[in-house]
């Protein structure tokens, strides 16, 4: 049967990024042939490119029901589940896709990503290297290996893999973004922000919040030690010994200088790009970042005032309260990230509902088992109430004579 020209055009549209046109043509084809698993798998891919991950997963499920032995629908289902954060289910789909097509690199790369997201880094690394061995000139394999090393916190290995991938595909946005995030972890602020700005300019709808990392570093990067340090200064202030008070003022000065130097270094190197990106994210995330910056600034100002002007406990208490405010602000920032990606939030809500339903089911089964055990115990006669039949105390031998 000759290929439908609309299907050919839809594939071409998907390759050049005209996904809305590709979706329209694919739905026209499916209106005439609704049981075409190949078309459904391609539609799942297009929907995923449009950011409609739940719909992409549903379409992939339809394709699997029609052609369960075709690896492509399993691949698309696994990709959609990864985007939704359903890592355990994505791993199941990836394993099935690899079982059906063990010599295809794409399925192995999906499996490597799913394993990495489940923190099975050693196996993920082996699978990614196996996929690269099947096609060494395929840049995506090197980028997936870089992502696996990134999740395993092996930044040097991640950088080498990303650079190998960029040698094969210098304009690849994913590889440039990944290398920029590695630079961010290594405090190469200017280079990281420049690369992220270029990627955001080419793909304005992709990863809009990653340019905010300098602001987040300034707002929340000090939370792990700023509050404990301020608390120690407060305790030292209330000891009542002059020598301890002098030590507390010196400690406050050191904290102020270190925090100020770190924040100024990040902001000076980052430039205005992160502040412009702040307008592209949800209001929850904006408020969280601004609140974090305000809490950090207030803590530093209070500690500076304590060290230089007023060595009194109320000033340090205010510093401790301001530093403690970084934690709820960070929680709001996490929620804002979910607000920026409603599909991920919906998947999280679905997982939570499934967990609650499973907990209720377990409780009903456990309660029924306990009730049955209680009734069985109540109806069992005591030893002094048992009337033994003749020969009941004689041992019975049921073996061969």
UniProtKB/TrEMBL annotation:
Domain of life: Bacteria
InterPro entries to which the protein is assigned, alphabetical: CellSynth/LPSAsmb/PSIAsmb, TPR-like_helical_dom_sf, TPR_rpt
Chain spans, region Disordered: 374-401
High-level lineage: Bacteria, Bacillati, Actinomycetota, Actinomycetes, Micromonosporales
Annotated keywords: Membrane, Repeat, TPR repeat, Transmembrane, Transmembrane helix
Any one Pfam family match given in the protein's UniProt record, by short name: TPR_19
Ranges of the TPR repeats in the UniProt entry: 37-70, 71-104
Gene3D superfamilies referenced in this protein's UniProt entry, alphabetically: Tetratricopeptide repeat domain
Compositional bias of kind Basic and acidic residues: 374-386
Residues that span the membrane, as ranges: 222-240, 246-267, 288-309
Name under which the protein is recorded: Tetratricopeptide repeat protein
